[in-house]
Each structure stands twice: as C-alpha cells, then as structure tokens.
Amino acid sequence: MAHSQPIKDVVRWTFQHQYFQQTVKNKLKNKKAAATKTKNMTSLFGQKVFCCVLVLVMACFSDKVKLLFQKGTINQTIQVYLHSLAISSWIGIQAWVIFVAGITMYFNMPRHVFGHIQSKLWPMYFRIGTSLTVIALLTNGAVLQLKEKKTRIEEFQHVSGLLVSLLCGILNSFYFEPNATRLWMDRFAFEKERGFGNEIGPIKDKELLANPKYKALTHKFAMFHGMSSLATVFSFIGGLVYLWNLTCHLINT
C-alpha cells in the first residue's frame, strides 16, 4: 500500500497531462477552423464586391462600349487604355521608389535589414518596369493612329524616351542590379563578422573603412550601384520625355 500512492500520482499526472494536451489541440483546431472560416468569408465578400463593381462599371459604360463596337474602334480604344495605364503606372512607381521609399527606408532602418529588403524589391521593380515599357511600346501604334501618319523619324522621336527607359531597365535587370546585390551581400557578410549591421545609415567606423578587403568590396559595389542608379535616373527621365511627347501628340490630335 505504501507504494500505491506514487503510482496513483503518476497515473493522475499522466491523465492530467494528456487532458491538457488534448485541450490545447482542440483550442488550436478551433482557432484554425475559425481563421479558415473568416478567410473564406472575406474571400467570398471580396468576390461579391468585385462582381458588384464589375456590373456597375458595365452598366455605366455599356452604351459607350456598344458605340465603340459600332464604330469599329474598340480594339484601338483598349490599346490606348492599356498604353496610358502602362506608362502612367511605370512613371508613378519610379517616382515613389526614387524619391520616397528608398530614401525613407535608408535613413530609418538598420542597414542590413534595408539591404535585404532592397535585394528583393529591386529585381521585381526592374522586371515590372521593363514589362510595362514593353506594353507601352506594343500599344504605341494605336496612339499614333489618333493623328495623321508620322514619318519614320517622327515616330522614332515620339518613342525615343520609351526606348531609353527600356534599355536602362534591361541593363539593370540583367547586369547592374544582380552584380550590385551580390557585392552588397558580400559587404554585409564582412560587416556582420565584425559586429556591424544594425546601424542606421552609412558605417562610420574608421578601422572598418580602412580595411583593404572592405575597401575593395566597397569600390566594386559603388561602381555597379552607381551605374544602376544612373540607369534608373535615365529610365525615369526617358519616361518623362515620352510623357511630354504623348501629351503634345494628344493635344495636337
């Protein structure tokens, strides 16, 4: 009988432990089910809202769309719309990234966190920009048809800004940005080994800045980063030049 009490305690503890585990599992299961239900309801609500907006838009523009079909200009209208959407989106994205997002993050985030975020954002940024520029070039013919036929030289002058933007985007996507990011990560690894990386803004440690290996990495990175930044600026200027040409073209239509 003296040994029966510890056995009872072990059995009781085992039962309580199993009961606690089962309770936790049930709570987690219920939370997961509730989250799934909420997600499904949100998705269903979003689909209903989208359908309502779509029906409303169709109701508002049905007569105009019908008129475009009757005139035979529906394809041209869609192309001009896509053209305007592509060029305005690309210029807006560039303005936000160059003048707002990059500067704000650089002066308010630890340098390594900022660098890792940028290493994910920049490739997507350049690919989206290149894609939007290609769409603008492919739909440019519909815009040119709004006026009398231009000469080859006039057509080239009209899209010259877009061509510059496209060239800069391709160079950044496939050459400047990948090399700059690779060297950036090499610098970060070198800094992390020496306890740096949580600083906001540039590193000011004189000993690190004087390190020959770090200086070599910094020099190579600065070269590719400088070329990438220059290409980004030229891409933005090219977009603005094209937007000016497009505005003049539409006003004179």
From TrEMBL:
Q: Does the keyword Transmembrane helix apply?
A: yes
InterPro entries the record matches: TMEM205-like, Xanthocillin_Biosynth-Assoc
Q: List, alphabetically, the Pfam families matched.
A: DUF4149
| TMEM205-like domain: residues covered | 85-187
Q: Which UniProt keywords apply?
A: Membrane, Transmembrane, Transmembrane helix
Subcellular location per UniProt equals: Membrane
This protein's GO cellular component annotations are: membrane
**Keyword Cytoplasm carried by entry:** no
Q: Where are the transmembrane segments?
A: 44-61, 81-104, 124-144, 156-176, 222-244
Where is this chain primarily localised? membrane
UniProt-listed PANTHER family: LATE EMBRYOGENESIS ABUNDANT PLANTS LEA-RELATED, LD23009P
Q: Would you tell me the protein name for this molecule?
A: Transmembrane protein 205-like
* Species, as recorded: Actinia tenebrosa (Australian red waratah sea anemone)
- Which gene carries the instructions for this protein? LOC116290136
